[in-house]
User: Fold these one by one.
Assistant:
Number 1:
Amino acid sequence: MCLGDGNRFQVQGFFTAPGGTEQVAGTGGFGQDSGFLWFFDRSNIEVLIKVLDGCSLSDRFWVFGAGLTNVETRIVVTDTFTGQTREYRNLGGNTFEPFQDTDAFATCF
């Protein structure tokens, strides 16, 4: 899934069910800046994610995420203009802790 102005940020999700191997999460969108990941069934959203243009406030693009899962999760966000990536993880068996990374990408032009 690609988010942000001009679909600049690629978001990839991965999950590992207990005793399993890492698998690719399904994706869906809510609009230009936000989307979701699903693991086992498209109708069961596991993670919400958004990429916001905070350049006018902090010279950064921001990445926020919140999960509805305790499954091991890995999220990779890539700025397709620069190739820079950020990775966010949740360890299996733990409640997914929300994150608000307002320092994610210092790639404003």
Note: The first strand starts at residue 2 and ends at 3.
Number 2:
Amino acid sequence: MLAVPGALIAHGLITVLKFIAAVITGSSGMMAEFLHSFADTTNQVFLLPGLRFYKRPAPKKHPFGYGKERFFWSFRPIPQHIG
């Protein structure tokens, strides 16, 4: 279960470096890469609650437990591109 925190740290570092490169160079392509990396980092943040919630014990209301909840948190709305 270290994949999500590890990816969060890696994506966060990459995001910061791409932002610095975009500011220094003024490159719109690098700014687009920064935004893409920021989206990846945000996705990892959404996965963190799922890692915590799915380990809860099964109560009477949910007799099969919360195992699939770790996958629910990976869903995020897909941005609609205009144009």
Note: The chain is about 65% helix and 0% strand.
Number 3:
Amino acid sequence: MNELPLEDARVRLEPLHARHVDALTEAATLERGTFGFTYVPADRAAMARYVADALADRAADRALPYAIVRRSDERVVGSTRFMNLEWWAWTSAEVPRGEPRRRDRGDPPDVVEIGSVWLAPTAQRSEVNTAACVLMMSHAFDAWDVQRLTFKTDARNERSRRAIERLGARFEGILRSHMPAADGVVRDTAMFSIVRAEWPSVKARLAHAPRA
């Protein structure tokens, strides 16, 4: 899959690179009071490992990670990624046009998740997160033509759940005791999705939504 920058007038998503470590460290360490439900590396050494792990996932076709750049001041303010990519194996005698897709020949995935998202406090509750998510949603559906786009968050994270719902994703339920949480407990996970048939109406609504 081609990994290109995604951008609009508000935000640019740059394919993650080792050169982003210092800027990401600054974004992650100026103030950490809002990171309770999200793992965000706390120093440069941890950030370097975080970026190296993300790049290893990219090399293995497990994820496409990005640095989030705020266009108004050209500052790196966080990170996000496409993750949990799925290529379906169709077993029926007849399959839809374009299927099955093949990972080994660079075909786009059938299913993808937007996740591992974190933002510096100066970019939270701003247009940056919405703009970044809309860029990724548009790429997933309009360029890759995915069947399904997934979001998930700690079930306790009401702010994140509301933000996902504002993007037009549908709540699917809670996965109980699903995975370790950033604060050391075993968390329940709230699951959300948008499917291909829903995207045109979601896209139209987002086009007329307030930017902040």
Note: Helices lie at 21-29, 44-59, 127-143, 158-166, 199-207.
Number 4:
Amino acid sequence: MAKSKSTNIKTSRTSRIVGYLAAIIMKAWSMTLRYEVNGQRGFSKPEIGEKPVIFALWHNRIFTMPPIWKRTGGMGRSSVVLTSASKDGTILATAMEIFGLGAIRGSSSRRAVSALIGMKKALREGFDVCVTPDGPKGPRYTVQPGVIKIAQATETEIIPIHIRYGAAWRLNSWDRFFIPMPFSRVRVSFDAPHRIPKDLSPEDFENARLALEKCLISGSDDC
């Protein structure tokens, strides 16, 4: 996908260098981990189907997924990741490039309309979209309505991803970001898809948002 040229996107050479180094660290770190991957959906293209999907996981669990994406949920598929329009978003977008993932710049807090348009375009072009529905600034473990809106508008299934760590450090950030300890176990589960009907009352829309939130929380071990 083409990169955005908007002047609202925060980028710099330093951010790109940091992103590149972050990818190297993530890749090397992941090689020490013992992954267990299972799920009702998400292993390969035949199981998910031909149509693109939206993958959703909590913001504080993203450290371990990109290095193994191509051999799990992204096997044989093209995927993009929603990142913020900030310099931190540039770091993440650059790191994702190293793992063969594209990026859509924007978030629920900045350039939200642009992000929604970008996700719609990606899905219509056949790309899966990966989102952290409580990012980029929280509240932690609260699904923002954007992911429900995009699934509703494009009639795309949402597949929740649960990640649990055998042993991990927690950062003192808004999301209490997880960094798994070397040589520890990482359990990745792809849950059953959430289908969002196109026509929803405000009450039904909120129920769909809460159902996805409850599902993602059920796969967390610190709630």
Note: Residues 13-30 form the longest helix (18 residues).
